């Protein structure tokens, strides 16, 4: 079968390569010309896609990329993986989904399957995409063409759970579309989780990320309370996790980053309003998680004041700026929010991140320093914002004057705790 993947980003490129690796002939349709060139030259720009895999499918001709939709009519399946960003006031922006759906609709032919993988509010597939496809093509869903939703749920950077072995939820609102889409995904994914409608599949995705955002907010709130009560939130959570079924592995942090957890819950919040329903947990979780960078800034100044260091003279080394460990992705990174707060306080700030060579905050670009003993020892405060695995934290603490550990990564090392303040 010939598969089209519209959008070769964090979702589309890994998906396209997986399908091509098992023998599908895949056409990537990507509007960014540079990306099309890079794919054609087997130069991967997505951390989870190895250059070897990309090289293999490009040279075998199984994967090719283009910027145009001309060949859509020759495809059997079209998988849409374009961004579904939120606007400034947290309302979903479906312009990418709508425009590519129109492009596909113009060339739609009987027998084709369209699936949407982008994270979005329940109703997008049936209420936005289907009408466009039917109006422009004159074809009918479930009879002439088939339409389904299957959310992408791979955990970025996770080597254990990949596109292949992460259970795939697939939903469609008519029996033929359900059957055909499940069959398609079964070709390359170990286990499929069929649900009764596209809406249900859309809701599964936004719910699972809402679940994470709410639970992270709960432990973040606990961290701020423990700070007031002079209790160690890490000790409390580790001990609470000894319950037979644990309390799920959620820990406080400097805030919530990435392109999923801070954003996905607001799709559900927005849609619920259409039913005059207030999703209080989502609003509250977002507010608490967004407060964490400010909380870290205030804690950093408290430590420096206790050391007698005035803000304007404080030398701060921030360790790690990516939104979570062992990745180079800085989208919505809490570390960036913390750095911009501290720069506003005129701190003399440098950062080190093995994955991120430079960051730009407003009009200022900072470059990752070389991590020398000198750099560590001369900092008044070392602020661990992202706990990249490759750092030797015992060595870091030994050489530092004072450490603020917002990830609890030093809590189980037997380093002299009077230098280290945990979040
Ligand atoms: N974080 C905490 N405390 C925690 C867990 C996470 O502070 O206990 C922070 C992280 O540092 C990060 C943010 O929250 O800044 C989000 O981390 P995450 O791992 O929950 O989110 P993503 O976007 O990296 O990946 C998630 C996937 N996460 C896991 O399955 C562990 C999953 O929810 C989705 O498959 C994926 O988003 C997606 O694409 O939606």
Automatic annotation (TrEMBL):
Residues in coiled coil: none
The UDP-glucose/GDP-mannose dehydrogenase C-terminal domain, residue ranges: 317-412
Molecular function via GO: NAD binding; oxidoreductase activity, acting on the CH-CH group of donors, NAD or NADP as acceptor; UDP-N-acetylglucosamine 6-dehydrogenase activity
Key words of the record: NAD, Oxidoreductase
Keyword NAD: yes
GO biological process: polysaccharide biosynthetic process
A Pfam family assignment: UDPG_MGDP_dh_C
EC number assigned by the record: 1.1.1.136
Catalytic EC class: oxidoreductase
Keyword NAD: yes
Source species, domain of life: Bacteria
Matches recorded under PANTHER family: UDP-N-ACETYL-D-MANNOSAMINE DEHYDROGENASE (PTHR43491)
Similarity-based family: Belongs to the UDP-glucose/GDP-mannose dehydrogenase family.
NCBIfam families reported in the protein's UniProt record: NDP-sugDHase (TIGR03026)
UniProt protein name: UDP-N-acetyl-D-glucosamine 6-dehydrogenase
């Amino acid at each position: 079968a010939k598969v089209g993947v519209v959008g070769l980003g964090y979702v589309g490129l890994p998906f396209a390569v997986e399908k091509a690796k098992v023998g599908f002939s895949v056409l990537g349709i990507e509007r960014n010309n540079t990306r099309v060139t890079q794919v054609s030259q087997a130069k991967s720009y997505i951390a989870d896609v190895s250059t070897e895999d990309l090289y293999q499918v490009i040279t075998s001709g199984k994967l090719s990329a283009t910027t145009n939709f001309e060949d859509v009519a020759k495809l059997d399946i079209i998988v849409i993986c374009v961004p579904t960003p939120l606007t400034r006031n947290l309302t979903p922006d479906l312009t990418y989904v709508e425009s590519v759906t129109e492009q596909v609709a113009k060339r739609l032919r009987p027998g084709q399957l369209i699936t949407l993988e982008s994270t979005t509010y329940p109703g997008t597939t049936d209420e936005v995409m289907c009408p466009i496809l039917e109006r422009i093509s004159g074809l009918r869903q479930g009879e002439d063409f088939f339409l389904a939703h299957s959310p992408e749920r791979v955990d970025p950077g996770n080597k254990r759970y990949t596109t292949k072995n992460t259970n795939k939820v697939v939903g469609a609102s008519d029996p033929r579309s359900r059957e055909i889409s499940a069959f398609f995904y079964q070709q390359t994914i170990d286990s499929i989780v069929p649900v009764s409608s596209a809406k249900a599949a859309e809701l599964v995705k936004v719910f699972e990320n809402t679940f994470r955002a709410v639970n992270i907010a709960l432990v973040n709130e606990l961290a701020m309370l423990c700070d007031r009560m002079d209790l160690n939130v890490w000790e409390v959570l580790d001990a609470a996790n000894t319950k037979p079924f644990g309390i799920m592995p959620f820990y406080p942090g400097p805030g919530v980053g990435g392109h999923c957890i801070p954003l996905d819950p607001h799709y559900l919040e927005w849609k619920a309003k259409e039913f005059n329903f207030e999703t209080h947990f989502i609003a509250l979780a977002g507010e608490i998680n967004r407060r964490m960078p400010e909380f870290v800034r205030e804690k950093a100044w408290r430590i420096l004041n206790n050391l007698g260091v005035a803000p304007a003279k404080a030398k701060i080394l921030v360790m790690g700026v990516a939104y979570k460990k062992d990745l180079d992705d800085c989208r919505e990174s809490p570390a960036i929010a913390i750095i911009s707060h501290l720069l506003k306080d005129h701190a003399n700030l440098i950062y080190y991140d093995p994955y991120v060579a430079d960051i730009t905050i407003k009009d200022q670009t900072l470059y990752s320093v070389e991590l020398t003993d000198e750099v560590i020892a001369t900092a008044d405060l070392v602020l661990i914002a992202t706990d990249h695995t490759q750092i030797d934290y015992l060595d870091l603490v030994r050489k530092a004057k004072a450490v603020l550990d917002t990830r609890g990564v030093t809590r189980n090392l037997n380093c002299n705790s009077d230098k280290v303040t945990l979040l």
